[in-house]
Structures are given as C-alpha cells and as structure tokens.
Amino acid sequence: MFPFAAIVGQDQMKLALSIAAVDPAVGGVLVFGDRGTGKSTAVRALAAVLPDIETADCPYHCDPARPEEACDLCRSRAESKIPQKTGMVRVPVVDLPLGATEDRIAGSLDLERALSAGEKRFEPGLLAKAHRGFLYIDEINLLEDHLVDLLLDVAASGENVVEREGLSVRHPARFVLIGSGNPEEGELRPQLLDRFGLSVEVKTPQDLATRIQVVKRRDAFERDPAGFAAEYEAANAEVRDTILAARDRLNDVAVPDESLEKAAQLSIRLGTDGLRGELTLMRAARAFAALRGDSVVGWSHLAALAPLALSHRLRRDPLDEAGSATRVERAVDELAAA
Amino acid sequence: MTAGRLAAANDAARPAWTETPGKAAALWHEAVRAIGVFAVDPGIGLRLAARAGPVRAATLETLRSLLPRDAPFRRMPAGIAEAALLGGLDLAASLESGQPVLERGLLAASDGGVLVAAMAERMTEEAAGLLALALDRGHVSVERDGVSRQLPTRIGIVALDEGMEPDEAPPASLCERLGLWLSLDGADPRGAPDHGLDADRIASARRHLPSVEPDEAAIETICQAAMAFGIVSLRVPHLAVRAARASAALTGRSHPSPEDVETAIRLVLLPRAVTMPQMPNADEGRDDEPANSSPDEEPAAEPPPPEPETETPRENDRNAEPPQDMTIDAAATGLPADLLASLATMTRPPLARSGAGRSGGFAKRARRGRVVGTRQGDPCRDRLDLLATLRTAAPWQAIRRAERAPGVVPRFFEMRISDIRVRRHRGKAETATIFCVDASGSAALARLAEAKGAVERILAECYVRRDRVALVAFRGTRADVLLAETKSLTRAKRSLAALPAGGGTPLASGILAALDLARSSAREGRTPLLALLTDGRANIGRNGAAGRPQAGADAKEAAKAVRAGGIAALVIDLSQRPSAEARQIAADMGATYLALPRADSRALSDAVAAAPRGGDAPRTSRP
Q: Coiled coil: which residue ranges (chain B) (predicted)?
C-alpha cells in the first residue's frame, strides 16, 4: 500500500479525507478532477493508516462496542447470551465498480443457496462490506442517478434496508462515501452534488519539480514496496496519531454562537439552499479544529473549510467564468472585511 | 543472466535493430520493440491499434513466443459479462446440473500472464472499469458464503483497438492505464531481418528488471516531455518510466540510457501528445493558443503549461497589433430563454416522416434507442426480455415450490409478476445539440461575440437538461470538429471561448461536418438537433476553392442533405440585418430561421414562439 504520508501535494484532498476520517458524520467526500491525480491512492492509503477495527463474527463486521446498531445475527446472539467471538480487521475500502447493479450494491437473494438447497438467504452486497469503512466510487458522474441516490440515502441513514419478495433485511451500513470523477466526462446532477458533505477539486501539479517528485516516489514504491513503506512509517504513524487524537477531542471542541452566526452569514451570502451547507461547514470546521488541536471553532477554521463544504452547493451559473471555489473564497474575504 | 551475457546477445541483435531497409520494415521494428518492452513488464499495458489481419496476427504471435510457455494468454471478448470477468456463479451450467457451478473469472485466470481484449473499442465502460480496478489493485475480491477472498490479478492487458473513426476508441479509463500505444499502420514483417528477441532473453531481462533503477535525469526528461506534450495525467509519465526501465533491462543496463528514455517517450508519450512542442518553422501563429484542449487539432500552442487558465495571453493578443485571427469573447445576448426547449418541440421536417430510405431508418432506431439493460416492468408497455425474466425466476423455483400450500401440486414453472423484466432503452429522451458556428471573417466582424453568447445561453439550457453538445466551427477553407459530443459543459465552454475567427466562409463543409456528427448521434439512438449560426454568405466551396457561385450551390446541396437526413435544425442569422442567403439556407434545410437579435430580444422570442410545434413532441417526453 502506498503510504499516505508519501503523497505529494494534494493538500485539500488529504484534508477532506482526514476530516471524514475524524467525523464520518460530515458526509461523503466528492473529489473531482483530472485522471491520474492519485485520488483512489489517497483513499486507500488513508484507510491503511487507520488502526484495525474490532469486529464481531458476522457478515456485517458489527462493532462489538456499539450493540445498539448491531445486525440481527449479533442481536439474537446477545439475547441468547451466546458469547460473541471478535477479531481484528483492517478498515475496509470497498470499490464500487462502474455498472454494478442494485442487487450487487444493496444485497440480494443468495443465488447459490437458492439453486442448490432451495433456501432463501440474503447475500450481503457492497454496502455491507463497506460498513465502518470507505466506499469508493470512481467515475461517480457516470453512475446511474438512482444508484447514486441509493448510496447517498444509505450513507446518510447508516442503515441498509432491503425489502423484496420474501426478503426483508435491515443491517447497519455506516461508511464514508467517496466519489470521484472527471467533470470533462459529464457532471453530477446538482441535486446529488448537494448531498455530499465536502467537495474537492484536484488538479495535476503544474510545476515540473512536483511532477518529478510524484513520478519518482511512485517508481520507488513500485520497485520496492516494503522498503518504501518503511521509509514513511514514522510519518504515517504521525498521521494516524493526529487523526486518533482528533477523534478523542472532537466532542470537547466548543462551537461558540459567534461562529455559528458567521457560518450562517457565509451561507446566506453565497445563496446556498437549505441548512445542509452550514451544518456541514460547522461539523467540518469542528473536526478541523480537533485535527489542529484547537479547542474552539473560530473564524480561521470556518474560512479554511468553507471552500470544501460550500463550493458544490452554489447554484450553478453557467455564464460565470469563475469557479465555485473562487466564488466561495471571494465571499469569505468579503465577510472577513465586513 | 549476467549483464555481460545480455550485452553480448544485444550486440548480436544490434545490426538488425539499426538497419532500416524500408519504412514498412522500420515500423515493424518499432512494433517489435514495443512488444519486447511489454513482454519484459506486461503491467505497462499495450494498446494495439490495427485491423485484424496478418500483421496483427504476426505481432500477437511474436508476443506469445516471447512470454513464458506456461503463462496464461487469454482472450477477452468485447461483450464480456461481469461474472465472467470476476468469477461467480455460472448460471447456465448451474441450471443444467442443478447445483451451483462456479466459474473462475477471466481476470484471476490470467494472473501472471496476458489478457488480450478483442475489439476493445467496443468494450463497455463497465468492463473497462473492472479491468482498471484489477490493474490498480493487483487483485480482485471474490465473495463466497460470506467469505471474501482476494485473487491476484497481475496481468498485462493488450487492447486490440480496431476503431476506424476518431471517436471510436476503447474507454478512456482503460486507455489511460495502458502505457504503450502502438499502431501497426504500414508495418510489414515481410523481409524484415530477425529481431533477435526470444523467450530466453525476455526471461533474463525480467530477472534483471528489479535492479534497474532510473536516475534523476531520466525521470526528469520524461516528466518534461510529458508536460511539453500537454499530457495531464501523472500516471502516464510513470508508465513511461516503467517502459524505460523495461527497455534498459532488455539490454542488460542497470540504468535507463538516453536511448531507453527516447524509446519510452516514443512509445508511451508521443502517441498521446495533445500539443506539440513549438517547432521552429511553425507557421500558424497563436490562433489556437488558449485552446489546445482539442486533441487532434493542428499542432500549435506553447508547450507548458498545458491548460493556461490565465487571461493574460489573450489580453496581450488584444492589445498587440490586430492579429490575423481573433478570439472574440462571448457577449451576453438577448436570446430568449428556453430557446432550445422551443426548438425541441418543433416539428421534424416532413420528409423524415415518410419513412423512406435511410432517413426513416435513422428515425426509427433513434426512437427505440439502444438497449442498455433490463428492469422490472410491464410487458404490455415495454418489450419483454424473456431471457432475463426466466433468469430472475429461476433461482426461486425450489423456494416457491416448497412454499406452496401442502397438497397443492406446484406448477411446472413458478413465475411471479415481480420476475418480469423488460428492456431498458437509452436515447429516447437524450438529445444532442450540434452547434455549427460560422467563424469566418465576415461573421466574426459582425456578430461572433453575440453568437458566442447565444451558444452559451443554449449551453446553459443543455446543462439543465443534461443534453449532449458538440461543436463544429468553419472558417478559412475547412470545417473542424472542435468538440465531439460531450455532456461536459466545461469543455464546451472552453472550446467556444478559444474559437478563433477570420478567413473565408466554407459553409458547405461546415454543414456537412455537423451533419456527420448528427448522423452518428442518431445511430447511437439520440435525437440530434443542429444549430447553425451563420450569415449565410458562403464563398468557399466544398473542395476548399474560393468562388461564390460554386460555394452557394454546395451549401444548398449540404442544406438539402440535412433535410433529407431528417435532422431537426435551426438557423440563427448572424448578419447585420436579416439576410436572404441565411433565410434561403434555412429553407433548404427545413430549419427554423431566426435572426440573432441585437439589444431587444422580443422579436426573437416571438419568432420562437411562432415556430411550428409537433403535437407529439417526442424529444422531450420521458418514458
């Protein structure tokens, strides 16, 4: 696995992913940009940085520490006082391949059982696999709208419900949804855009030195993955510690009324619809403060996070040349000056 | 295995590599070189552009002879299903035998070897996505009984690209990951001297490969070249570095030499070049300068950065002496909103209804759209997909029989309404708007800025409706497709902003180029709309020769072809005051004619409102 700490540049993307790792409730992350900018590498690398998770012995790798959201199997075991076996697994990163069907995503009748034994059994889908981890969708802009809708619904509720002839299954599916794509190949419907927590626009670095650095590290990694990973182990551990410390600190970070007001003013100034924007901005700013070791959310946190949390919520103006991020930055500057 | 022995082998081969008896043989040498690099490190990937034939067969045969004898060498058909790629339940075999038969996926089965994708230009995005995933991760995950297993997929992919048209290409997600791009055009193995490569040499190069280390200069050269060619992705220079290493391993060097780097640049970077580094004798000035987003266009433009977003160069242009060609910014126009919607509800030209000849064929197919899958539905309204229906019902048979009340004899085949699957079509509601913009001197001076504004306004509507757009511009002696059909507003706007103007008016060429796009769009099951923005003053004929009478006649012919093709069209007149020529073209096309309004848009609104509308409005209704 390519070490997270060895990723050159792409600070905004790394920040957005770290925030989602600290507080998954921020909502999914949308990464739009050129091909070959290391989007999927960053997601996988981040998951590898995180410590292994303790799981129950069930198809949904339930969290033994959170019995309230356990699956039916774990619940019945708990009720009949069967001791739960647990194990440690890596934080899952599930790739959603383009063209995956709804059955495959949400789960469906287990064909094999049905054919051989005439037995009705639910075969968990990709959503179950992604529970407590990351669900990564490359080219989300090419995915059919109803599937994106399904994914966003489950990501928001943390639960997957399958109701079909004879099948009625409900299981936990808490994951960070990460969608990526290249806007040159089609755009995501604005209605769907808005439901992602954070959005980042990535660009390939334009200066030669950085590009050389990227290619060099990639090549070094490929020639000797183990040696390369060892080189960055300390730096990776630092990333892990920062994220874990931030998770611990998260609930203690104070959000003063003044900051709430600023967030609201910013949203109004930008004309974003609904409250989702400012709520996300608040949450993200809080996680950001936690990452930085600050105990209070202030203007600096809001200003830094506004482009990530708000730029994809602006009403698209096809005649405005300036990108959305620029418009958010403009509004931030105006508000700071006001 | 030692470097010394390798060098000796290479010496023996060198005369054969350096002698170039003829062009065909030289091209063959290049092909063999690429094959050699690929055989050493198949993970680099190969896109092989060639028609099926003896040369391609010889190339694949050569490749096969270089690979280890026991390595898999599998073929992947274009229409492969996901289960066949990843592995899973073989439904046909399972039903026949009455018990689950597992199928090992093609990806896992090709581990350690080569997967040859036939007719890759017809590969689905889905299949390409799975291949890309397997390449990126080096394994595929397979789940069985709640246990998930990871099967290694260290494969080399050869995509056989038989695309004839520029827009017929394997999916971009795959192409991006295939390092070597090789065309066998003109290559001929006959009479070529022995290439000196064999399986043993490849095997020792493979052993040597891990110790080949690229030095700083090699990586720098490759990155620099990639930037100069306008290649955005960083995956590509990395693949080029791999190719340089493989090339070095082939000759037993421990660092890629300048020749290895050159080989890598030629095989990996050059075929993808978007811009060419400025040549000393480049005659075309700066006309395309902020553009260079249109591949395959004339090589102009400064090398780095590939996509200058800054305004400065354009500003400079404007302040400097008036250049021959001008880029005119879009001006806000007073075009009425919903222009496109009005256009879409417009009646098709009457000829298209007759159903005669090719035009009927297009229309019929466009209405039905392309089958893109199945869904649950009502067979009375949509076409039943019998196979899918049976497939859905099949696994439930045992369960349903068991669920029958005791004593009731189960039916032979227990079908439920929920099993019914109907075909899903694409294209019914999808519209492609093809802009054909007159960028000639006469139009430019008059109204090009306003024309750009008009197009942007319509683009904004397209964005809302998620239509596809394409852009053709004509000026000087020819017409160019600036933007093939896309859903990307970003690209459309960029192409438009960079549209240079000046020169003659090859109206006929413009119309025909747009008609070509419209036809291929219709073949894909979409409904094309052609929006022609011109002043109608054709002065360049189809053959590129100047002369008003001939140009006018050609344009008339072209316009009639649009009508015959049953393509809905709109002509927006760019002249200072409404011109008879543009009106005539519109009449020949069976198109709606609109004069581009100046300040007041009322006249145009009225015109659009008065345009004839179809009763059934097939293009906007959704199923």
A: none
Question: Same structural domain for residues B397 and B529?
Answer: no
CATH topology of A4-52+90-212 equal to that of A251-337?
no
Domain that holds residue B239: 1-23+31-40+197-278+295-306
DSSP letter for each residue of B525-548: T-EEEEEEEE-----B-TTS-B-H
Probe site for chain B from A35, A61, A188 (most B CB atoms < 10 A): A35
User: Do residues B27 and B34 touch, judged by C-beta distance below 8 A?
Assistant: no
Residues B257 and B405 in one domain: no
Domain boundaries, chain A: 4-52+90-212, 251-337
Give the end of a domain, one of B386, B402, B426. B426
pLDDT, residue B610, reads 41
Q: Residue B14: what pLDDT?
A: 37
Pair B408, B434 in one domain = no
CB-based contact A204 B234, cutoff 8 Å: yes
CATH (domain of B154):
3.40.50.300
B295 touches chain A (CB under 8 A): no
Interior CA angle at B379 toward B376 and B380, to 5°?
Answer: 140
Judge: B223–A215 Cβ closer than 8 Å, yes or no: yes
Output the six-digit token pair for B150: 């990871």
B210 occurs within a structural domain: yes
- CB interface of B with A, residues 507-566, below 8 Å: none
- Per run of 10 residues, the mean pLDDT along chain B (length 623 residues) is 32 39 80 94 94 91 92 89 74 65 82 93 85 87 62 92 78 91 86 81 93 92 89 92 95 92 92 64 38 39 39 37 41 43 38 28 36 68 77 81 76 77 63 85 70 74 74 87 81 79 87 89 79 86 84 89 84 81 88 66 41 35 34
Give the residue carrying structure tokens 């064909």.
A111
**CB-CB contact of A302 with A263 (8 Å):** yes
| Portion 250-289 of A in contact with B at CB < 8 A | none
Is residue B149 less than 8 Å (CB to CB) from chain A? no
Tokens at B332, concatenated: 């806000």
Tell me chain B's radius of gyration from C-alpha atoms.
29
Find out whether B533 and B454 touch, Cβ atoms under 8 Å: yes
According to the CATH classification, is domain A251-337 in 2.60.40.1080?
no
The answer to whether residue B535 is domain-embedded is: yes
Distance of CA A43 to the CA centre of its chain: 8
Looking at the partner chain, which of A115, A218, A219 has a beta carbon nearest the beta carbon of B395? Answer: A115
Mean pLDDT of A208-224: 92
Q: Are residues B1 and B105 in the same domain?
A: no
Cβ atoms within 10 A of the Cβ of B306, count?
A: 20
* Minimal CA separation from A207 to chain B, in Å: 8
| Total count of domains within chain B | 4
Is B172 at the interface with chain A, CB within 8 A?
yes
Does A165 touch chain B if contact means CB atoms closer than 8 Å? yes
- By the CB < 8 Å criterion, does B256 face chain A? no
Same domain for B398 and B266?
A: no
**Residues of chain B found within 8 Å of residue A165, distances taken between Cβ atoms:** 396, 416, 418
CATH for A4-52+90-212, options being 3.40.50.300, 3.20.20.105, 3.40.50.2300, 3.20.20.450: 3.40.50.300
State the DSSP code for B412: S
A112-116, A223-227, B581-585: range with lowest mean pLDDT: A112-116
Does B366 fall in a domain? no
Question: Helices A11-22 and A299-310 meet at what angle, rounded to 10?
Answer: 100
**Whether residues B384 and B513 fall in one domain:** no
Task: Choose among A164, A184, A218: nearest Cβ to B490.
Answer: A184
Residue of A60, A98, A122, A136 for testing the chain B interface, max B β-carbons within 10 Å: A98
Q: Is A218 a catalytic residue?
A: no
Please identify among residues 12-71 of chain A the ones whose CB lies closer than 8 Å to any CB of chain B. 34-38, 40, 59
Q: Are residues B205 and B173 in the same domain?
A: no
0.80 cut: is pTM over it?
A: no
> What angle, 0 to 180 degrees and rounded to 10, lies between the N-to-C axes of helices B199-208 and B3-18?
130
| Judgement on whether residues B226 and B249 belong to the same structural domain of the protein | yes
Selected for mutation to probe chain A from B175, B213, B232, B376 (highest A CB count within 10 Å) is B232
